[in-house]
Amino acid sequence: MKKYYRSRIMFSAMLSFLIILVLTVGAIWLISYQAMERNTDNFIASSLEPREENEGEGGRRFMQDAPPAMFGYNPGRRNMPSGFYEITYTPDGEVDQINKRGIAEDADVSVQEYVMNAVKKNVDKGKVGSYKFGIRRNEDGSGKVILVDNSIQLHMLYNVLKNAGMVGLGIFILLIIVLFPVSGRMADVFVRNTEQQRQFITDAGHDLKTPVAIARANLDVLELRQGRNKWSDNIRAQVDRMEHLVQDLIMMARLDEEQNEQALDSIELTALTEEIWHEYQSSLKQKGITGETALEETPPVKGSENLIRRMFCLLMDNAVQYTPEGGTIRLEVKPEKKKNRIVLANSVTSLPTEKPEKLTERFVRGDSARTQKSGGSGIGLAAVRRIVEKHKGKLVIDYPDEHTFRVSVEI
Question: So which domain of life are we looking at (predicted)?
Fold first, then answer.
């Protein structure tokens, strides 16, 4: 039990940390990348303006924001990136002049050819390698190309991402080291609370058995002396309900025990299903319920035969209980990949008001008024889920249509 809670606590904490780390680093990287793109676009647009407008009074000039002074450096504002090419071309689309500014890497022939092809295809801007370019066309067919080298900025972004990942990995390892003893203490609290709750339920269940048995015995004597009437029938119905509730509470307490006292058996699922289905035929006939089966041969299942039998009985009890007279119950068992699939569907007058996933919680009932009549305790499906979990299976409840309640178990 402690191992279970500790693993859940550590998994939740580490998953939360990883999500926050990825979102934080991703956001920082994306903002930095967008800032680089924005500065590059502004510089290209400023550089492509006619020179008289760019340099005249009131003309637009690119000016990069200056970072604050730090670590003994006091950088100023820059009016150009680290390096770029200024290329002019003739009306024929041939290169006229190439001016290299700053510390741009030497652009190879393929980059220049790509840019000149973009000129011929009337493309206004684009990217090639680590370069970003913009084109200004003159009325006479000549023009100007600004080719900005972003390799330094891209390397910086890559280093930010790599260093953040390394720091995150270090913090992740540190988190595991710190969280291991802390999660043990937290798990002790959960284990203690769970043990106290289970012990309380078990003790309360055993203590309630005596007054329920006395009430039933007194009721039997009263009916022998005065005969049955509607009042005694109501009392007996509530005594039966209380008795079933006590049994279900004790069963849930036992299912929650961590130690696996149940021996693992090789279970022939189809044969066990047929056996239990025949046991319920009298209950089906009493309510005039039509029973349908589609049972295929399945490979043996490793598990507790007592628990699997109990699971089938709980599902059948639930189906018979809520299927109206003249309704239908259909049971299917079939192999599916590496698991076996059990599907039990029954017709209902009205579907539960609760969502399907809520019905497997303890004391959650689809319809309180209807359950009071039928005597349900809201524990049956919760017990089924617990049994399925013990066998590493999956339980799904759904409503295929407005008059069908279906339970599917993969085990």
Answer: Bacteria
How many domains would you assign to the chain?
Answer: 1
In angstroms, the CA 81 to CA 152 distance is 10
Q: What is the CATH number of the domain that holds 400?
A: 3.30.565.10
- For CA atoms 371, 372, 373, 375, give the dihedral sign: positive
Q: Identify which of 75-79, 178-182, 295-299 has the greatest average pLDDT.
A: 295-299
Angle between helices 2-48 and 151-226 (to 10 degrees): 140
Distance CA 295, CA 333 (A): 5
| DSSP codes joined into one string, 279-328 | HTHHHHHHTT-EEEEEE-----EEE-HHHHHHHHHHHHHHHHHHSPTT-E
Domain extent for 271: 265-410
Is position 402 within any domain?
A: yes
Is the per-residue pLDDT at 405 higher than 70? yes
**0.70 surpassed by pTM:** no
